Amino acid sequence: MTEYGTIPTDSDTQPVSDTRPVKVNAWNGWDPLRHVVVGRADNAVVQAPEPAVRRDFPDDGYPLGTYGPMPAEMTAEANEQLDNFAEMLRRRGIRVDRPTPVDFSQQVATPDWTHDSMSGCMPPRDLLLTVGHEVLEATMSYRSRWYEYLCYRPLLQRLFDDDPGMRWEAAPKPRLTDASYHPGFWDTYNTLSTEEQLARVRDYDLVLTEAEPLFDAADVARFGKDLFVQLSFVTNRSGYEWLRRHFPDHRVHAVTSTNTHPLHIDATWVPLRPGLVLHCGERLADPELMEFFRLNDWEIIEAVQPASWEHPPKLSFCSPWLAGNMLNLDANTLCIEEKEEPLAEQLASYGFEIVPVPFRAVGPFGGGLHCATVDIERDGGLEDYFPRRHGRF
């Protein structure tokens, strides 16, 4: 069986013995995993400057305003860890698919704008959201990522052909004109105090305007009947509203972060299993959100301080709290970056089997173990884990 959308590498040439029918089905992040997408680091670049994002790595050869390919040795090391991770999942009986990289160094354009680079296809979680039998392509708010969906179209087409129950949806492609961004945002925001930045986050007064719906899939946390959408640097209120209307059979909640640079919910509010959620230990979450979970008999764990990110790798834009960006194989088994031993010990005390995975080299390409994957099939169905309502939830 040929894997969907795969450019073969040495680690992808082994025969695939799984002959189960392809089925898109994933309602949460903890039911037993059967089929997953794992990203690739091939051809990734430091993005050219754009209104939505700035990259500034003066110590690593890419000061503000510059862009270009990630170093070959970094790409090779990241791909080795991604390939080894994919092979480990296969050995556990999980079907693994990979995206098809393109030339991310090329200039791209629409009638509204021209941009001097793309980005990469390491973090599929940013683009694709599986809710039940549907795979949804997110809008993306970076011009450098506008065409990233092309890397997944071969895979999505095969899923659509092989699973007659699959729903393949794409959110409206945004125009991403200058009207979608607050002019001069970064020049102002970076001069503010921590408390001033947190106030902007609470009020959702960030880089994106409400000119059009914008969201990354990684800002959506799935808890069965309830979907939690974080408002962030890449997800606006209009994006949340689009998701709320798109999933009328779900309860879709907008939440704000308690850190100064909110970017994806999957390292700050992490579902572990029914009744247990992990929170970034840097700051407490929204009190109303915490009360809602506790009212429904959920225990909230504050993650211990990350162990391995005191000295970020070159060209990395990830927070130290990427430590909490982990992948559930089932409700009792967690894949965690191998150097995060304190976090592994903390979660093992709750009865989890911990699978340590070497993955630190992947961080500069867009995230951790959760970012690098998208679950296509998990056992289980739609469940209601929050029968009691509270406040705005």
Provide structural commentary.
With 393 residues, the protein is an alpha/beta fold. The protein has a single domain, classed as L-arginine/glycine Amidinotransferase, Chain A, CATH 3.75.10.10. It has 8 helices and 19 strands. The protein has helices at residues 72-91, 124-127, 153-162, 185-189, 194-202, 237-246, 287-295, 341-348; strands spanning 33-38, 45-46, 68-69, 95-97, 108-109, 114-115, 128-131, 134-137, 167-170, 220-223, 226-231, 251-256, 269-273, 276-279, 299-302, 327-330, 333-337, 353-357, 373-378. The strands form 7 sheets. A 3-stranded mixed β-sheet has the order 4-1-19, with helices on one face. β5 and β6 (114-115) form a beta hairpin.
